Amino acid sequence: MSTVLESPSLQRQCSDAEWQARLRLAATYRVFHMLGWTELIFNHITLRVPGPDKHFLINPFGLTYDEVTASNLVKIDLAGNILSESAYPINPAGLIVHSTIHESVDDAHCVMHTHTTAGLAVACMADGLEYSNFYAAQLHDMVAYHTFEGITVHDAEKPRMLASLGDKRLLILRNHGLLSHGASVGHAFALLWTLNRACEIQLACHSMRGQTLPIASNIVAQSTRDSLQFDPRFGAGDAILDALIRQVDKIDDSYRQ
């Protein structure tokens, strides 16, 4: 059995702000594990490190999400240089996707990318997301699309990905999966959860006989305006994530190491 290496002295070496960011991100990896939003050792959640430099935290390549802890998260710069002690490398594909957004979108403090079955299935549909269910109706004019160019390991794709994203918070990577970015971890999570839930319902609908019932565009727009999921008055997603982290803490709080 492999040993998950950690640096017990890291908390003393980094700022309190960085340590709190590490705790929040590590807890979120455990939330993803609890929800089943995992793909072996692949996919990523990244979070900017507080401070003047555009450094961010990413999962160690080789660990599953339930092995991620505050101290074994890897701090890197936009070029992928490892800035913290780590026994693990980082995934080049994760670097390309996440560094692109962290570098160019000022308030993209957290970026999440998944390959859930429902999300990937909708990403493979020519029409993409249908506005035919309660969750999709909360995402009016919030979703962009990016054409699949193969495994994301080439710098040349970065400007095209940014152009596809535009000013949207959500990106459906065609034939690939889902992506969100937010002003906080909770914000990015609420966005991704809502999109993934919409995809789950769409997948279920398409498994049944008959046609889906579209929602009128004016009702979709109104539903998005009325949604509390991303409203700062109700935590902008942080209250949702906090509730799930409390569940994680009841199961296994080793992410705090």
Automatic annotation (TrEMBL):
Domain of life of the organism encoding this protein: Bacteria
Q: Which GO terms describe its molecular function?
A: actin filament binding
Which SMART domains does the record cross-reference, listed alphabetically? Aldolase_II
Which InterPro entries does this chain map to? Answer: Aldolase-II_Adducin_sf, Aldolase_II/adducin_N, Aldolase_II/adducin_N_sf
Q: Where is the Class II aldolase/adducin N-terminal domain?
A: 23-203
A matching Pfam family: Aldolase_II
GO cellular component terms? Answer: cytoskeleton
Q: Which family does it belong to?
A: Belongs to the aldolase class II family.
Which PANTHER family does the annotation name?
A: ADDUCIN, PROTEIN HU-LI TAI SHAO
Task: From the Swiss-Prot or TrEMBL record, give the protein name.
Answer: Ribulose-5-phosphate 4-epimerase/Fuculose-1-phosphate aldolase
